[in-house]
Design brief:
Shape: elongated
Largest sheet: 6 strands, mixed
Low-confidence stretches: 261-296
Number of strands: 10
Strand content: 5-15%
Number of helices: 21
Mean pLDDT: 83
Distance between the termini: 23 Å
Strand order of the largest sheet: 5-6-7-3-8-9
Length: about 575
């Protein structure tokens, strides 16, 4: 399948003044390895992202990929799950990318052939975080070759690799292109021996095309015709990059490239399309498809996608023993600390302030902890999701559902651990309905905070999430702790506003659990003449909580949970747009 583009222009994000690409045209053929070259900032990655469909915002022009199977895109950074082995990743990819009617044996044959072709036999059972840079790059290529795509786009595949590994990788890509694939890579400044391995070169400078054609004598002839003689024993790649850094040279070469483009497109139309009528140029709408018509093709079976992703996430959780231990220790230490601070005060009628502190501390701890963890780890997951979703491994909804279900057991277990420790240490009555309501409120608060944390983690980097997270949580905590000592005088509008805080719903729910459900009178020492809050009903009256109930607070929390889960899904959908 060949790739052609015409009149491609790309503007910088949030700006219509700076052009990253300026009216570039080109054609990449099957069976060839093509290098997109140019100085830093020339627009190499921008062009690759545009023609692959990885970026569509701010891109205008015409792009054509022949009909049939879709292309795949391999980013500069090798984004693979560090907890899994190449064998496991290849197995998951084969389930998602091969037809559903393939048997287990047929999938195994495809995987084994790819492992042999790309030389991954020695590392097939090693965790990916232990692989070398070259092995990870070959693994990334192998994962995308599962369904034998006709077009491969690779962004700086040699970045970070030593010279020997780089040569081996480019030779591998050259061999893969000989099977009829169209392979396009971006590369900065290859050595002379590496430069000769490319069949075609597309040279960019200042966002404009200054040359497209063969990598050897064709390039030298083009330069010589335009007055640029490459010195003997000089690397042509180095020479042409040096030329491309001068604006005057760029103007000369880009005009020469444009003048030679007309005959190139006539050849394309004669070979690949219907003959021209009256030797006129074929209409652009016939030559290339609109960028907006790019439609990924994914596995059609929802169940295959869901079950495969679900099993992969469970395996990741099982392998991530260090992360799981850290979470358990954190919850264990914090819940024990809370229990020590309020030890046996849950039945003391003289400790009214401590009762409020218990409810606030437990709820805020659950909200803060469950929101912070996903903000730190999920940005990496989003990058992995974006890569796999773009390359048509699966759709967003089955991933979202599988992720939600697979993460639930750990969240439930950690929240139960907190609730059991705190409930037993603060001395609340051991009544089943009271204990279950306490656990349920804590779990729901944790789920809401987790959804908010994943929303932030899906939109921002870990560094930015650390700044955005507290900023987001602070209003919920501020509204949650406002006005308990003057509830009767709060303005009606302020009263509506504070009810929007899910943390407040959790605090009020815990207060109702502690002192509601027909609780008996609290203990008061004999030396206390008058114990005002011995009767739990007095607490409700003082805090004006008579209008609330546990089911109502649970309803508030469930509404917040649905809202933030929907926000999380929409945030992922926004991140996946290109």
């Amino acid at each position: 399948m060949e790739v052609c583009f015409e009149g491609l222009t790309c503007w910088a994000p949030m700006s219509r003044k700076k052009k990253l690409l300026d009216d570039v045209t080109g054609r990449f053929l099957p069976g060839e390895l093509t290098a997109i070259m140019g100085p830093s900032g020339a627009g190499k990655t921008t062009l690759l992202n545009a023609i692959s469909g990885y970026r569509r915002r701010g891109v205008h022009g015409k792009i054509m990929e022949g009909t049939g199977r879709s292309s795949c895109y391999i980013a500069q950074e090798d984004i693979v799950d560090p907890m899994l082995t190449p064998a496991e990743l290849m197995d998951f990819a084969s389930r998602l990318k091969l037809p559903a009617n393939y048997t287990l044996k047929q999938r195994a044959v495809v995987v084994e052939n790819l492992i042999s072709t790309l030389g991954l036999e020695d590392c097939i059972n090693s965790r990916t975080h232990k692989l070398s840079g070259g092995q990870r790059k070959r693994l990334s290529i192998a994962l995308e070759l599962i369904n034998n795509p006709p077009v491969l786009f690779l962004d700086e595949p040699t970045s970070g690799l030593d010279t020997v590994t780089t040569v081996h990788l480019i030779r591998l890509l050259s061999r893969l292109s000989r099977d009829g694939r169209t392979i396009v890579v971006t590369i900065h400044q290859p050595s002379a021996s590496l430069f000769d391995l490319f069949d075609r070169v597309y040279l960019l400078a200042m966002g404009r095309c200054v040359y497209q054609g063969g990598s050897g004598r064709h390039l030298l002839k083009f330069l010589a015709i335009n007055g640029f003689i490459c010195p003997v024993h000089h690397n042509p790649a180095d020479f042409v990059i040096e030329l491309a850094e001068d604006k005057g040279n760029v103007n000369i070469l880009s005009e020469a490239a444009k003048n030679g483009r007309t005959s190139w497109f006539l050849d394309f139309e004669v070979d690949q399309g219907p003959k021209l009528e009256n030797n006129s140029k074929r209409r652009e709408s016939d030559m290339c498809n609109s960028i907006s018509e790019y439609k990924p093709q994914v596995c059609e079976s929802f169940w295959i996608q869901f079950s495969t992703i679900f099993s992969r996430i469970l395996l990741q959780e099982k392998r991530n023993k260090t992360g799981l231990k850290l979470q358990i220790y954190h919850h264990l230490c914090c819940s024990v600390a809370l229990g020590i601070m309020f030890f046996k005060k849950g039945n003391d009628g003289t400790e009214f302030v401590s009762h409020l502190k218990v409810c606030m501390a437990v709820t805020i701890f659950q909200a803060y902890t469950m929101q912070t963890v996903p903000m730190l780890y999920y940005p990496f997951e989003v990058n992995l999701l974006k890569k796999e979703h773009f390359n048509k491994w699966y759709s967003l909804f089955p991933y979202f559902l599988a992720f939600t279900v697979a993460k639930a057991p750990i969240m439930v277990s950690l929240n139960l651990l907190d609730s059991i420790i705190v409930y037993s240490m603060i001395g609340l009555p051991w009544e089943l309905d009271r204990f279950l309501c306490f656990c349920l409120i804590g779990l729901t608060v944790g789920l809401v905070a987790d959804a908010l944390g994943h929303t932030i983690g899906s939109l921002f980097s870990p560094t930015n999430s650390c700044a955005i997270g507290p900023f987001t949580l602070a209003p919920f905590i501020g509204l949650a702790t406002y006005g308990y000592d003057f509830m009767k005088t709060i303005h009606p509008l302020m009263d509506v506003l504070i009810q929007l805080s899910y943390v407040r719903s959790g605090i009020i729910g815990n207060i109702l659990v502690l002192f509601g459900l027909d609780r008996k009178e609290l203990y008061c020492p004999d030396h206390i003449d008058y114990c005002l809050y011995k009767d739990p009903r007095e607490i409700f009256h003082y805090l004006t909580l008579d209008r609330f109930s546990i089911p109502l607070m649970m309803l508030h929390l469930c509404i917040n949970l649905c809202l933030f889960r929907l926000t999380f899904y929409l945030a992922l959908k926004w991140r996946l747009r290109t």
